[in-house]
User: Which sequence fits this backbone?
């Protein structure tokens, strides 16, 4: 089997995205029904988290646990990088210590690409700088499919700090490739300078941006990434862009409310939006485990292989649940 990296949604083909989604759905079904799972025992994944992370790190560890993989955890504070070693040399060290793959989260955009270049084995991007967070987008796609039955034809509003959000970029590329219409909504100061290169329309007024939206995806205000004053005040931002009972009336009836977490309650959304019937935030967290299982399995060569005719019909197949059947033991 051919090993693969999962570095970004932008460079994946539609059939590859659907294969990962299908695998995630199938693995969720197998876990819930206590059926056999791929046995990837004997493989050791390096978990390199150079940023604070709870849900993504634990989600990858839980995914590895289900697949019987071992994981070795690294953080900058406890590694040789705290002594001045470069990321390249750290990656080379881990390679020759015979780890089988890497999951990496880093504040620098492109760090997973560098890791893939020097490690030479499967590398999975767990979020890099202001670039991408592919497994978050895959989990969000599974959640939307479970609730809406399809992605093609939906209107999805991505609201908030688009500038600093890797979640926004991965979701925008995935949703656009699977046939959804994407709106970016937020203040001018929190929009990328070259937003025209992203697959979506930009709105600065919340009502215009979320009008008739089937999905409203809130983004966290990433104050730790803001260089200087980018919003006048938290209170004014909440007044203009908060998703709440009042502003949800502008969206389509039954629209989904999503948030990649961690939440800033009372700012990006209120309790009604976060905990109400339209919220699927906890489903996003749960599905993150299964798509990360799928990603680990897929990167080590698991999953089905499509021929060209299958790939040509893949968009239509995105509206239904999986028929993918994880096979036996994946090999490094």
Assistant:
């Amino acid at each position: 089997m051919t090993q693969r990296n999962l570095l970004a949604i932008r460079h994946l083909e539609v059939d590859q995205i659907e294969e990962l989604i299908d695998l995630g759905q199938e693995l969720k079904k197998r876990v819930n029904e206590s059926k056999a799972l791929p046995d990837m025992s004997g493989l050791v994944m390096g978990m390199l988290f150079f940023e604070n992370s709870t849900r993504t790190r634990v989600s990858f560890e839980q995914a590895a646990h289900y697949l019987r993989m071992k994981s070795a955890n690294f953080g900058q504070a406890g590694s040789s990088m705290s002594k001045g070693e470069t990321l390249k040399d750290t990656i080379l060290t881990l390679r020759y210590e015979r780890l089988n793959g890497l999951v990496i989260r880093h504040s620098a955009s492109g760090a997973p690409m560098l890791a893939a270049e020097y490690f030479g084995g499967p590398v999975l991007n767990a979020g890099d700088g202001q670039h991408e967070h592919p497994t978050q987008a895959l989990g969000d796609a599974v959640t939307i499919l479970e609730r809406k039955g399809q992605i093609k034809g939906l209107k999805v509003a991505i609201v908030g700090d688009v500038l600093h959000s890797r979640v926004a970029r991965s979701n925008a590329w995935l949703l656009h490739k699977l046939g959804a219409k994407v709106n970016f909504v937020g203040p001018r100061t929190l929009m990328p300078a070259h937003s025209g290169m992203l697959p979506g329309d930009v709105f600065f007024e919340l009502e215009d941006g979320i009008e008739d939206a089937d999905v409203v995806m809130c983004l966290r205000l990433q104050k730790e990434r803001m260089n200087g004053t980018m919003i006048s005040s938290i209170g004014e931002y909440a007044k203009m862009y908060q998703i709440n009972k009042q502003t949800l009336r502008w969206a389509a009836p039954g629209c989904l409310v999503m948030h990649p977490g961690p939440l800033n309650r009372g700012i990006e959304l209120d309790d009604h939006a976060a905990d109400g019937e339209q919220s699927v935030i906890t489903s996003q967290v749960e599905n993150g485990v299964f798509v990360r299982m799928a990603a680990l399995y897929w990167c080590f060569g698991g999953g089905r292989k499509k021929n060209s005719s299958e790939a040509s019909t893949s968009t239509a197949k995105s509206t239904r649940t999986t028929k993918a059947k994880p096979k036996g033991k994946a090999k490094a």
